[in-house]
């Protein structure tokens, strides 16, 4: 399929793609190993899957104008979806692997990384 045949991305999707690229570069520069990007797990998607030493990190990326708006967009419902996708991703390794849920916010002003932003209930 040529670029001309590929489906066009909306401006919101393009913003999200650019935000994920910036978040990925930021995490790599912080020493993380990126294991996957836009990982589909059933009907859910994990923005970034990374390793921080021995810890598997599931990263929700938000690209917004304001950091506060980005943080508010990671609702409890969204958190549950990410946690569910992570559990499916880990499968039988679920109880043998330490994991963490981070949020990376990308704005025009820079990148904000919230480690351990939320936890399973």
- CATH class label: Alpha Beta
Mean pLDDT comes to 87
User: How can the largest sheet be summarized?
Assistant: 5 strands, mixed
Strand order of the largest sheet: 1-2-3-4-5
Number of strands: 5
Q: Assign the structural class, choosing from mainly alpha, mainly beta, alpha/beta, alpha+beta, or little secondary structure.
A: alpha+beta
* CATH architectural grouping: 3-Layer(aba) Sandwich
* Whole-number tally of structural domains: 1
Give unreliable regions as ranges.
none
- Count of runs of 4 or more consecutive helical residues: 3
N-to-C SSE string, H for helix and E for strand? HEEEHHEE
Cα distance spanning the termini: 44 Å
Q: Tell me the helix content.
A: 25-40%
Shape: globular
What name is given to the CATH topology? Answer: Trna Endonuclease, Chain: A, domain 1
How much of the sequence lies in strands comes to 35-45%
Present the secondary structure layout.
Layout (H helix, E strand, L loop, with lengths): L10 H19 L3 E9 L2 E9 L2 E9 L3 H6 L3 H15 L8 E9 L2 E9 L3
Parallel strand pairs: 3-4
Antiparallel strand pairs: 1-2, 2-3, 4-5
Question: What this model shows, in words?
Answer:
By secondary structure, the chain is of the alpha+beta class. It contains three helices and five strands; from the N terminus they run αβββααββ. The protein is globular, with a radius of gyration of 15 Å.
Search tags:
single chain, 121 residues, alpha+beta, Trna Endonuclease, Chain: A, domain 1, five-stranded mixed sheet, globular
Give a quick precis of the structure.
With 121 residues, the protein is an alpha+beta fold. 33% of the residues lie in helices and 37% in strands. The protein has a five-stranded mixed β-sheet.
